[in-house]
Specification:
Chain lengths: 224, 600
């Protein structure tokens, strides 16, 4: 193998790559160009920076009720790899988490427990309702099942399916991230308006309607 | 015979008649051919005690205990008059193994209860003194039917919350739908009240709060705990880190699947079966559709049998892989579960290509399957067969030979065959004790007798053996799938029978008659002949069976789902007393249950 030796230059000037040989010939004033400043300094509103941090590091609470949880867990594993979106750190305690995914059927015996766990999540906190049972009771219009977790919890986002595919859950999570990026929250209890402004999420049925209607050739189940 | 009743009197009926006299029993004919005897409530305990302890090749296992609300049933088919009947199903492994392929180990006893009104509870004696695992079953019957078992040590609700005011849901006068009641509200007051109702009170369970030297600690594990595998709660009575006793608390996952069967058509109930053992997919459809096929007298074509075997074995593999990964995770190995989920994904690729869905395909039909196999399925299945074995070899090194896994699992939470039968344990948990009892061999169904495979057995009955048995079962399932791939018969994917649902297409559009018949069958659903039927299969977690009462309508009159995980959880205290908390975590993982399979 061929090597090129580069010695440490004690009079090295910042802003110029030491790999270019003629850096010493460059005049001093060109080194700190506006370009360099633009590359290294970020100006933004503090609230935007906080939102950026929040949306890219959602820590979900390790909470599952039934079948949907298996598909939710599948998104944490390599094929779907939730870590790409910064949400792989599942926490075993609600006090360390900021997202609760209601993955499964909400039973009347379980509802007070779900409520209690939700109360233990610290603000800011978000709730995804995953699957038909959590959304509306789904197939189970039956004496022991609460007809949708939104009967007692504020839900930020609904993921349809029975159970939803891992891809559907991922899409839901990305939409929630987007919405978190647009949220307006007070930076502290003494700064600014104390309300929370949440971005309205458009219905996916409306958004995707045109695209779905344009789909005229459907694959037959006769071949794989 | 169309109704499946054997023409000769079964051996056990002759033995019972000889012992107790002909007058003691009334024989009932059922479509599943299982010996079904009505016995007077006064003689019940005596008969059961004899069957368990004195009968030749005794019935050591109480397989199931349930009830039927008979008050609105039109077709009683000559059974003794009853408002409620309580059904005891017993299993003798010895009889089954002595006469394989005859289902000789089954026996169903029924007791008639009279004089029940809406607020009057019928009584009968508890059998917990004879079969200890009757405890939870009797609590369930009390909870859902309001039948009182005299002498039960702690007859309280099990599936519904202790604060439940709504009566007993499986009674016919009880409404089924949540939307028939006031909308659910969780006010702060109700929240406090419900939380208070869930508080554990040791005195209610006859537990002491301390020994002479020191106080015990009561630790509440669940209903939401990462190691509890779902909404399951177990309260531990601890002396330091040693478990003195524990009380499993279930019912956080009760979806009313049995009541649901009474309002769905025979056909539209199939998707609900998928969600019983939600890791088992079409494995759950199998006992349900096979029970109905027995009732209707449908013989399915060979191709259907082979497709069914192949798909259920695929689900056995995905379920066992999830067990294997989470088991390793619960004893501290973080990586294997990630590898195994990749394998599950590969299996789901095949399942999805064939059935169109991942977890709950609801793909079996009464009399067949939903579609024929798609073109190119062989390639997909072959890819999986090529992929899996070398991965399993790797896991053997990473998990089974791992010294930490061995230290946590060998000789921990062990029970022997007698204890397993006493508690109603079936499946890998039973075979890990060395009992060679696999329904696919003992009572082959779906053509399992034509396949070449072995039943892996353990010998110690500890956690490690349960892992090894399941690991080997994955390999055997691969063998079975390979044989399906090589020998898939040609032919139709539906039986040519009037009750096949949906009907065979080319028999539907001939004239107005066939058009109407077809329309009614897919809108109202098929009408099954009145009768009683059941079917047992070796499911992923143990023996799963459906006991169906048809009253000549488009829906079931009573659907009983006997799931393996229910007795497995009931067994926990007897196994774990005197061991450590970490042993309990490993033990719970080794049971391999999902709560939907417990609470239904």
């Amino acid at each position: 193998m061929q090597y090129t030796l580069k010695r440490i230059e004690p009079n090295y000037k910042t802003g110029v790559s030491p790999l270019t040989d003629d850096y010493t010939q460059k005049p001093q004033e060109d080194v700190f160009t506006e370009e360099q400043v633009r590359r290294n300094v970020l100006t933004a509103k503090l609230s935007d920076l906080v939102n950026w941090g929040r949306k890219n590091s959602i820590w979900p609470y390790n909470f599952g009720l039934s079948c949907c949880y298996v598909e939710m867990a599948t998104t944490f594993t390599p094929t779907h790899d939730l870590a790409r979106f910064g949400s792989e750190v599942i926490r075993a305690s609600p006090r360390q988490a900021d997202l609760m995914v209601i993955a499964g059927t909400c039973f009347m015996k379980m509802a007070p427990v779900v409520q209690r766990l939700y109360e233990q999540l610290l603000e800011p906190r978000w709730v995804i309702s995953m699957g038909s049972c959590a959304n509306s009771g789904g197939m189970y219009d039956i004496y022991s099942v609460v007809q949708g977790v939104d009967k007692f919890l504020p839900v930020d986002l609904y993921v349809p399916g029975c159970p939803p595919r891992p891809e559907a859950f991922l899409e839901g999570l990305l939409m929630l991230q987007n919405s978190i990026g647009k949220e307006q929250r007070p930076l502290s209890w003494v700064v600014g308006d104390q309300g929370i402004y949440k971005a309205n999420l458009p219905s996916q049925r409306d958004t995707k309607h045109a695209e779905r209607q344009a789909q005229t050739i459907l694959r037959t189940p006769d071949s794989v | 015979m169309a109704d499946g009743t054997p023409s000769t009197v079964p051996e056990i009926v002759r033995e019972l008649n000889a012992r107790f006299g002909d007058a003691a029993f009334t024989l009932q004919r059922t479509a599943d051919g299982m010996p079904t005897l009505w016995v007077a409530v006064e003689r019940l305990q005596e008969v059961l005690r004899w069957l368990k302890n004195e009968a030749p090749k005794p019935y050591k296992m109480l397989y199931d205990l349930t009830a039927i609300d008979e008050r609105l049933r039109k077709n009683r088919l000559g059974q003794p008059a009853a408002d409620f009947s309580v059904v005891y199903q017993l299993l003798s492994v010895e009889r089954d193994l002595a006469a394989p392929r005859t289902a000789a180990g089954d026996l169903r006893l029924k007791v008639a209860l009279q004089g029940a009104t809406t607020d009057n509870f019928p009584h009968l004696p508890s059998i917990t003194g004879i079969y200890p695992n009757a405890n939870w079953y009797e609590r369930e019957v009390w909870d859902l039917f309001g039948i009182v078992f005299d002498g039960h040590p702690n007859l309280r609700r099990i599936l519904l919350p202790p604060s439940w005011k709504g009566g007993h849901p499986l009674r016919k006068e009880h409404a089924a739908r949540a939307t028939e009641f006031d909308p659910y509200q969780l006010t702060a007051l109700r929240q406090d009240m419900e939380q208070e109702a869930l508080r554990f009170n040791p005195e209610e369970w006859g537990m002491k709060r301390g020994s002479e030297e020191h106080d015990f600690m009561f630790l509440n594990l669940g209903p939401n705990h990462p190691a509890a595998h779902g909404a399951f709660r177990v309260v531990l009575q601890l002396d330091g880190e040693e478990i003195v006793d524990c009380v499993p608390d279930i019912g956080y996952h009760h979806r009313g699947a049995e009541k649901m069967g009474e309002r769905q058509s025979w056909h539209s109930y199939i998707p609900y079966t998928d969600r019983i053992d939600y890791l088992g997919g079409v494995m759950n459809n199998l006992p349900y559709v096979m029970a109905l096929e027995k009732l209707a007298g449908i013989q399915v074509p060979e191709r259907v049998q082979c497709i069914r075997v192949m798909m259920t074995e695929f689900f056995r593999i995905t379920s066992h892989l999830l067990f294997y990964g989470t088991m390793a995770q619960d004893v501290g190995a973080m990586s294997p579960v990630f590898y195994m989920f990749v394998d599950r994904q590969k299996a789901y690729d095949v399942i999805e290509a064939i059935t169109g869905f991942r977890m709950h395909p609801a793909w079996f039909r009464i009399g067949g399957v939903a579609h024929d196999l798609p073109k190119g399925w062989e390639q997909k299945v072959q890819e999986f067969l090529d992929w899996m074995p070398k991965r399993l070899d790797g896991y053997r090194k990473a998990c089974l030979e791992n010294s930490i896994v061995k230290a946590r699992c060998v000789d921990v939470a062990a029970y022997n065959t007698a204890e397993a039968l006493e508690w109603g344990v079936t499946g890998p948990g039973l075979r890990a004790t060395g009992c060679d009892y696999d329904l696919r061999k003992v009572r082959p169904y779906c053509g399992y007798e034509n396949y070449d495979f072995e039943v892996p057995l353990g010998h110690k009955g500890d956690i490690y053996d349960r892992i090894v048995v399941r690991e080997e079962e994955i390999r055997q399932s691969l063998r079975i799938i390979e044989q399906c791939l090589k020998n898939m018969p040609s032919g139709p994917y539906k039986a040519d029978h009037a009750l096949t649902t949906p009907p065979v297409k080319d028999r539907t559009l001939q004239d107005i008659e066939t058009l109407i018949t077809h329309f009614l069958q897919v809108s109202w659903g098929p009408i099954m002949p009145a009768g009683e039927t059941s079917f047992m299969v070796e499911a992923t977690k143990g023996i799963n069976s459906y006991y169906l009462v048809a009253d000549g309508g488009t829906a079931s009159y009573r659907t009983r789902i006997r799931t393996p995980s229910f007795p497995h959880l009931q067994q926990i205290p007897s196994v774990i007393r005197g061991q450590m908390v970490p042993d309990l975590i490993a033990y719970i993982a080794s049971i391999d249950f999902v709560m939907a399979d417990v609470d239904r």
